[in-house]
Fold each of these.
Amino acid sequence: MRKKITAILAAILVTGLLAGCSGKNADPIASSASSEAPKNVTITALFMKQAGYSEDAIKEATDAFIKENPNIKVETTFVPYEVLEQKTLVANGGYDVILVDAPWTAKYVKANLIKEVTDKVSTADRDDIFAGAISAMQYEDKLYGMPWLNDVKYLFYNKEMLKQAGINAPPKTWDELIADCKILKEKKIVDFPIVWSWKQAEALAVDYALIAGSFGGKFVEDGKPVVNDPSNIEALKFMQQSLTDGLSNPGSPEYLEEDVRGVFSSGKAAFALNWTYMFGMANDPKESKIVGNVGIAQVPGTAKAASATINGGMGLSIAQSSKNPDEAWKYIQYLSAKDFQKKHAKDALPIWKSLFADADVIATNPELVNLSKTQYEYLINRPQVPWYGELSKQMQVAVQVALLGRSSPEDALNKLQTKALDMSK
């Protein structure tokens, strides 16, 4: 009996050894693969130059990411916003990570340019991100990138100029703004009280969409264009009249956001619409002559809408052609994390709701943080349709034609509606 037991144990031992030699755990290839260092890769990322987070902030964060992930090299490219979309479309797989503006998501999805990441963002994270930021990266209920830049436009004003004019508070309606501008001009406090970014570029489409929204307008309804909506015409008349009356800076049809910042920060305008970043820079002695006199308020409205501001939300997406999607997503997660957003809250407010209760974030700008909670209630999107790019280009032309007095607002928008109908087919 003892011999039988010994024989059985020996057999079991031999079988186990053989299994160990041939099993997965002993596979020399598998073992070395699990223990070897991550592969060295290089990923490329495309960003924009102006507004939102600065190049220095992004480069600093990228260097920190590389330090934490020495196997991943990141090459960054910065281009003006005006060529960002075109650069993406013609890159032909040249980037792993791309910056996507809110109205481009649908187009990029249809063109198969960006990867779906719905399953990569947890429910907890989704619940902590502002709906406007999430919506910028969604199409047909699927997520195609991580929200990153959470931005809207505000009304900025020069406190000292308003005080000199006897104006006690910033305007709450466009009618009040026009009345204030007339007082400022009549008292010769400033030649052109308000300045806008109305150059034939996306900046113009943004401002027009914002103003039209405050007049109760819309550009698309049930997937169909309605650009000659009466409220849109009314908004364009308001814009045109402000130039005709000499209240808006005559350079506005050639200005982008940085030009607006320059004019306002040099003390040559009492009012301006711009993104969050201008608040910090207009209060920077190195960049501004009006430090301490910068006010920020909710965008004015009308009887139809108390206010309206545009969703300037942008996200970071993995290019469909990326050969290193995992590393690209790791980089995206690093830039969109709360640590980065908290550190740079002065440049752009976080996408994370929870950070708005963070003492350090509030301390960067209590006035702005508190205002944003109200302004976000009036957030509108530019049309989220695959043909938005062409609509925007044609809209810029039509609106500029009217602003320069070469067409009536009605004629300009009626012609645009005809073109928009063809685009949507």
Amino acid sequence: MISDYDTIVAPATAAGGAIAVIRASGRDAFALCDRIFRGRKPLSEADGYTVHYGEIIDGDRIVDDVLATVFRAPHSYTGEDSVEISCHGSSYIVSEILRLLTAAGGRMAQPGEFTIRAYLAGKLDLSQAEAVADTIAASSRAAHALASTQMRGGYSDELERLRDKLLNLTSLLELELDFSEEDVEFADRTALRETMQRIGAEIDRLRNSFSLGNAIKEGVAVAIAGAPNVGKSTLLNRLLNEERAMVSEIAGTTRDVIEERANIGGILFRFLDTAGIRSTDDRLERMGIERTMESIRKAQVVIHMIDAPTLTGAIPEPDFTLRPDQKLLTVANKTDQAPASLTLPENIIGISAKQGTGIDRLCEALRRTVDTDALYHGDPVVSNSRHYEALTMAREALDRAADGLSNALPADLLSEDIRQVIHALGSITARGAIAPDEVLRNIFSKFCIGK
């Protein structure tokens, strides 16, 4: 996939800042930088973890005053000799330094190439490498905590413990094959079943965490639903603090789903402003209502908006059904126009989307729909669909092994099913093995250049 002998260069910071960092990594990183860096002494003679002031030169011309940080192999991010050049953030300066580095013998890095070198050097396992991209992309406190836990290896350690237990099981089973003529059982079948049940419970816990992890990573989907003109678009604009959705007193104004994101209490929410639900002969409005129902089906949380001024008796029931795992928040809007005698039940959140009253209570209720206690305590939470698929394969193989145990299958067949569990779990981290190029290309193609 890459050449270990190339020296790669790339900007490690986004364009537009006051300071930019340019990274060089590879066998010739020091010699490469010494061709364009002039300081008190050559970087090739400097100790690791030292910073040196100097100038980037192009012949007799000074391009910029810079700081060069030296990392010596294997004690660097990539495990290779590396230099990070901190320069002024001008796009011209950055492009000139990159031009000089490539002219001196370096080449521009591919997306994710620094991180894949770290992986190949054993600095990171595959799940930790994926967490690097998630850390960069994190847009909320929860998403950052999720990626940080995975990047620190807590997730990998959990999988490694499962793998060790499984290896112990298959070792005992395969030992029986060497004594097959004596009909000896080294793996007590009752103890074996109990161990497999405990492992299955741990795999299930990780799989079950995917709904939380994926929601935090991608944003918790919240459908804002209700009758026409109840104030759904006004609420969306209030939550976003901007006029994103068109607001009108004409019923049926919103005919398509509008999706916008907002960070509330450290959680990213994806709000879906939907068409009002009612009976209509308007073909376009019916299409909008169909999309509303689809959005409700996909949402983790549904805000059912009702009109406070029209409440005279029982709270109206939603015009849609929910899954058991979905959460419902009933919100009575336009409380500023409601009779003073109106008293809402405790479970109904009263707001005025137009005036902004009650929005804080609604945001608190939204925040409570996402349980992040385990996440902030560092517990492993699965957020990657590749990991979820691997855990599902592991669970299926473990179920086959459990069925085989119940049916008194011979040790070699039991061992083969358990080895399938080990293989599936091992594909997540690829510890002790290098993942296939196809998997690596798919993972690292999502990275930005310079990481």
